[in-house]
Amino acid sequence: MLGNPLYEGPVFGEKLSGIEYGEKIGVYGITVDDKGKIAIIKNLTGYFLPGGGLEKGENHEECLRREFIEETGYEIEIENYIGTASLYHITKTGEYKKGIGHFYMVDLKADTGNKIEEDHELIWFEPKESVKCLFLEHQAWAVLKALKMEEKL
């Protein structure tokens, strides 16, 4: 399995005492194009990194490949593991969730034309704008960490 699912990095949001939080584990990819722009998914809820929830029996790689096809139509090559971060939040439906995100650098490969989620639009943002627009704070953290890693290469 890619990454280290037992490691939990920074935690964002406020955990309210006396509240039970359901966990949602997700895997997300950060893609930088040849112009230095970041791939962001826009849907009816807001702006997010491509990726999503880990399904039963899936490993990180399988989840990330499936999510990229569903949301963008692209096959991917998974490069570096960026890290893991968590976010305590209340969903739009009023559920208390602890989102645990595992983040990877990803290269887009062939467009399969098999995009499934038609309400998901792939948009390319300048790095600073991508961090500002992301709906989830732990995803913004991952973009910043990825950009710092890229500078070291």
From TrEMBL:
Nudix hydrolase domain mapped to chain residues: 20-149
What's a Gene Ontology MF term here? hydrolase activity
Return the PANTHER family for the record.
GDP-MANNOSE MANNOSYL HYDROLASE, MUTT_NUDIX FAMILY PROTEIN
Please give the cofactor(s) recorded in the UniProt entry for this protein: Mg(2+)
> What is this protein's record name?
NUDIX domain-containing protein
Q: Which UniProt keywords apply?
A: Hydrolase
| PROSITE patterns per the UniProt record, alphabetical | NUDIX, NUDIX_BOX
Q: Look up the domain of life of the source.
A: Bacteria
